[in-house]
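User: Quick sanity check before I run a bigger batch. Here is a single chain. Can you write out its predicted 3D structure?
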Amino acid sequence: MGLHRAFDVAQVWALTLSGLPPALRALYLPTRHQRVDGMGVFLLLIVAAGLADDLLC
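Assistant: Done. Predicted structure follows.
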């Protein structure tokens, strides 16, 4: 059971929404502090690959 069912949201969109904060942080750090957060970039790639896979299949 997930909270996405209470709001009648598809699981893929709920997971994509939950990936936004790490994605924004991964984009913010290099522009503000001139350093790349490797874990944030990795999570961003995982979420993007999962979203692309779900939308294409």
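The chain has four helices and no strands.

User: Great, the batch can go ahead then.
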